[in-house]
Amino acid sequence: MTSPMKATCHCGAVELNVTPSEPLDRALRCDCSYCRRRNVPTISASLDGVEVIKGADQLRLYSWGTHTAKHYFCQTCGVYMYHQRRIDPNQYGVNFYALEGIEPKDFEPRPWVDGVNHPSDA
Question: Do the bridges between strand 29-30 and strand 112-113 make them parallel or antiparallel, or are there none, so unpaired?
Answer without folding.
Answer: parallel
